[in-house]
Design a protein that fits this description.
Layout: E1 2-4, E2 14-16, H1 21-32, E3 37-40, H2 51-61, E4 76-81, H3 84-98, E5 105-108, H4 116-120, E6 124-128, H5 129-138, E7 148-153, H6 165-181, E8 186-191, H7 197-203, E9 212-214, H8 236-254, H9 267-283, H10 296-305, H11 311-317
Parallel strand pairs: 3-8, 3-9, 4-6, 4-7, 5-6, 7-8
Antiparallel strand pairs: 1-2
Length: about 325
């Protein structure tokens, strides 16, 4: 049980009933110190919730013990997400959890602007990398950037992505500003597992003995099994055919029982593989194992397929197949 009497309202307490293994290990540093933090953990391991203790830790500094109220105009917290969809999700998340404390959360993206008045009355600003890069690079109004005390960068492993220069610039600019002004800004990086996590920690000015946390496969939220299948074909075309045949057999084993994710090595092959699975299922008359023709699911998928703009996805959707790759991400200007 984690319980902190932070609420400005008498008799109301902010309660989180249980922390998982990863959150429990981070809590003493996230809430009890101002150390920069880099957390590397598998997808679904609860990284995002680690943000809350760091937010509460910062808020506690601005709390009047006598009245229980906060100096809301004295601090700003920035949460940087890689996609606009995630920005909207986090705005709702923070609002539902922190509004009881009087905290206001704002969304700042290319599609959602904030006026100076809105920024002034907002304590947590959720934004995208590209938008925050523009704000910090071009802004002449430092009335609120000088109040920033905590910056959380979600999915910081995108340093290795095509958009890598953007988070790199944002972090370097923040560190440079700290050195020039002497005003400390706590940096918190959230990432999937990284091979060079120590290098990223150094870049974030994280003390590897205090603020670096790395959790690998044993901390997966669900147990994973590995099975290796050897393919001896040398010629590319035959290798591709055998690979697809094996993939179809494996996917069919779970058809109608569980959802299945197939990871492909390129964007182009993503659609090709999905169409192969669909076409093979139709040829072998096993397509009904994926989506029953008389069920409501097929009717819903067929109806929703009409709203899909991508031709490949529209062609597959009604049969219970879908595709996704980085080209579908709702990024801003990257």
């Amino acid at each position: 049980m984690v319980e902190d009497n932070l609420s400005p309202h008498v008799g109301v307490r902010f309660t989180v009933p249980k922390l998982n293994r990863i959150q429990s290990k981070l809590y003493p540093v996230a809430f009890g110190t101002d150390e920069p933090v880099l957390l590397c953990a598998p997808t679904g391991a609860g990284k995002t919730n680690v943000t809350l203790p760091t937010v509460l830790n910062e808020m506690l500094k601005w709390r009047n013990k006598a009245t229980g109220t906060f100096a809301m105009d004295s601090f700003k917290i920035i949460y940087i997400a890689p996609m606009k969809a995630l920005v909207q999700e986090m705005v709702g998340n923070f609002t539902s959890r922190l509004s009881i404390l009087g905290i206001k959360v704002g969304e700042l993206t290319g599609d959602s602007q904030m006026t100076k008045a809105q920024i002034a009355e907002t304590q947590i600003i959720v934004t995208t990398l590209e938008k925050w890069d523009v704000v910090t690079r071009k802004s002449t109004d430092t009335s609120y950037t000088n109040l920033i005390r905590l910056i959380v960068i979600d999915e910081i492993h995108l340093l290795h992505d095509d958009c890598g220069p953007v988070p790199e610039s944002v972090i370097a600019r923040t560190v440079c500003r700290m050195e020039q002004t002497g005003d400390y800004v706590r940096l918190v990086g959230l990432s999937a597992t990284l091979p060079n996590y120590e290098d990223v920690a150094t870049f974030l000015r994280v003390d590897t003995k205090k603020g670096l946390f790395y959790f690998d496969a044993p901390y997966q939220p669900c147990d994973l099994q590995q099975q290796f299948i050897g393919i001896t074909e040398k010629k590319a075309i035959k290798w591709y055919q055998v690979t697809n045949t094996v993939c179809y057999k494996k996917v069919l084993d779970y058809a109608g029982k569980n959802q299945t994710l197939v990871f492909i090595h390129s964007r182009k092959e993503t659609a090709k593989t999905a169409k192969y699975l669909r076409d093979t299922a139709m040829e072998k008359e096993t397509i009904t194992q994926f989506v029953k023709p008389e069920g409501a699911t097929r009717e819903i998928l067929t109806e929703e397929a009409n709203n899909v703009k991508d031709p490949n996805l529209r062609d597959l959707f009604s049969f219970g197949f879908a595709i996704h790759h980085a080209g579908y991400r709702e990024r801003t200007e990257c």
